[in-house]
Amino acid sequence: MKKLFYCWAVAASLLCLASCKQKEVHVVLETDCGTIELKLYNQTPQHRDNFRALVAEGAYDSLLFHRVIRDFMIQGGDPDSKTAAPGALLGEGDRPYTIPAEFRLDEGIYHRRGTLAAAREGDDVNPAQRSSAMQFYIVWGQIFDEEGLDKVQKRLDARTDGRVKLTPAMRETYKTVGGTPHLDGQYTVYGEVVSGLDVVDAIQNVATDSNDRPLQDVRILRAYVKK
Fold first, then answer.
1. What is this structure's pTM?
2. CA angle 61, 69, 186 (to 5 degrees)
3. How far apart, in whole angstroms, are the C-alpha atoms of residue 223 and residue 57?
4. What is the DSSP string of 48-103?
5. What burial letters (b/e) apply to 116-150, b meaning 16+ CB within 10 Å?
6. Distance between CA 62 and CA 43 in Å, rounded?
């Protein structure tokens, strides 16, 4: 009888784990240039839940991609961009809180092309590298060769006191898919594009002014959590 009870308890526990497993959260951004669908990582729960809540309340509707750098990334989420005049300098708007860093390099989460990451204030005023409440960026980056990655590793060694190392798997990804490896272990990556990478490409190629703001506004028309 004890053995039967033990087997039943184990089976019940496994069933509970399966049913309680966190469902993937997908967010859709409808933009002037097309639609981008993002998957949020369960490995970064604080960033996932914050982004999902902001999207659900409509916080990103009508905001701009206010900072765009070709072969690097596209950045949005400044609430001041909603009604910003043409050419106005943006990037300082946010909610009055930050999110603790959730670096997950050991789980294969890093700055490859198409990943979603949190913007933040610089290390001089933010040594804990806490993330912005609202502002985010989607990585485009470049494709690297071995020599280029060696240079990036030296840069990482200097910036992180040798804490961040590019693994063979990461190096292969940066040589084939591309990305921004010099940001690894310093900015939290918390999702990825699952559809609409061509839209990200189109946005990262738009003409910009000296402050990296697109000359013609690129707006998030609507953001919503996909059911």
1. 0.90
2. 85
3. 10
4. HHHHHHHHHTTTTTT-BEEEEETTTEEEE--GGGGGPPTT--------S-EE----
5. bbbbbeeeeeeeebbbbbbbbbbbbbeebeeeebe
6. 29
Reported as a single tens digit per residue, the pLDDT across 10-56 is 444 433 434 346 799 999 999 999 999 999 999 999 999 999 999 99
Selected from 3.40.30.10, 3.40.50.1240, 1.10.3720.10, 2.40.100.10, the CATH number assigned to the domain covering 23-142+186-225 reads 2.40.100.10
In the chain, domain spans: 23-142+186-225
The whole-angstrom separation of Cα 140 and Cα 71 is 6
Sequence letter at residue 24: E
87 vs 160: CA distance, rounded Å: 35
Distance of alpha carbon 45 from alpha carbon 41, whole angstroms: 7
User: Residues 89-125: pLDDT tens digits?
Assistant: 999 999 999 999 999 999 999 999 999 999 999 999 9
Indicate if the alpha-carbon torsion angle 139, 179, 35, 69 is positive or negative.
positive
- Both tokens of 189, joined, read 């990556």
